């Protein structure tokens, strides 16, 4: 929450709270939030966070990577997880996904699936709570001239050139 007074002084605070005690709350790290909806040439490590009043055993948490609607599930052996206890007594987990899982071209949707020690299960993607979406595209668009050949001499004052531009992830401008 940000508040400005009439002299333009800023007061800013952030509060994380749980209304429903039944399961985990997920959120993106500040760095991951910047990637939301982005088209990128490459991606480095990404961090997602989970908060729960109960512990989430290491082997009960998975990272879900959807690439072009194909699911890959990472178990605790495939990512790094840091566990801390908040001053309020909540368990907070930071999941670090290595870039090696994020290098192929495609449309990504990444989330967390977990089951806490009191057996509450949550999937951030199916519950529409948090999921990071971005596109990795390191291939340039392809341009093809349809009615003109390379090094062709054109003996006209005007000539309409037809060009087809194609890119697997879409073209922003021509």
Descriptive key words:
single chain, 174 residues, mainly beta, 6-stranded mixed sheet, 4-stranded antiparallel sheet, 1 helix, elongated
Write the layout of secondary structure elements.
Layout lengths: L1 E3 L5 E3 L12 E4 L1 H4 L5 E2 L5 E7 L8 E7 L2 E5 L5 E6 L5 E7 L8 E10 L5 E3 L8 E5 L5 E4 L17 E4 L8
Parallel strand pairs: 4-12
Antiparallel strand pairs: 1-2, 3-5, 5-9, 6-7, 6-10, 8-9, 10-11, 10-12, 13-14
Structure description:
This protein is an all-beta fold and 174 residues long. The chain is built from 1 helix and 14 strands, in the order βββαβββββββββββ. Strands 4, 6, 7, 10, 11 and 12 form a 6-stranded mixed beta sheet that branches. The two termini are 40 Å apart.
Largest sheet: 6 strands, mixed
Low-confidence stretches: none
Strand percentage, roughly? Answer: 35-45%
Quote the distance from N terminus to C terminus: 40 Å
The helix-and-strand class reads mainly beta
The helix/strand series, from N terminus to C terminus, equals EEEHEEEEEEEEEEE
Percentage of helical residues? under 10%
Number of separate helices = 1
Average pLDDT level: 84
Shape: elongated
Rg over C-alpha atoms, rounded to the nearest angstrom:
23 Å
Tell me briefly what this model is.
This protein is mostly beta strands. It is 2% helix and 40% strand.
């Amino acid at each position: 929450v940000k508040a400005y007074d009439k002299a333009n002084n800023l007061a800013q605070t952030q509060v994380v709270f749980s209304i429903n005690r039944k399961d985990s709350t997920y959120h993106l790290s500040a760095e991951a939030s910047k990637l939301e909806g982005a088209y990128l040439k490459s991606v480095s490590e990404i961090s997602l966070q989970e908060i729960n009043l109960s512990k989430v055993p290491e082997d009960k948490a998975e990272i879900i990577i959807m690439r072009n609607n194909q699911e890959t599930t990472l178990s605790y052996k495939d990512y790094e997880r840091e566990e801390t206890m908040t001053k309020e007594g909540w368990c907070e987990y930071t999941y670090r996904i290595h870039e090696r899982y994020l290098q192929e071209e495609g449309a990504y949707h990444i989330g967390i699936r977990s089951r806490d020690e009191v057996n509450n299960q949550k999937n951030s993607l199916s519950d529409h709570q948090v999921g990071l979406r971005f596109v990795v595209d390191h291939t340039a668009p392809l341009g093809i001239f349809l009615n003109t050949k390379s090094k062709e001499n054109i003996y006209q004052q005007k000539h309409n050139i037809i060009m087809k531009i194609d890119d697997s992830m879409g073209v922003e401008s021509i």
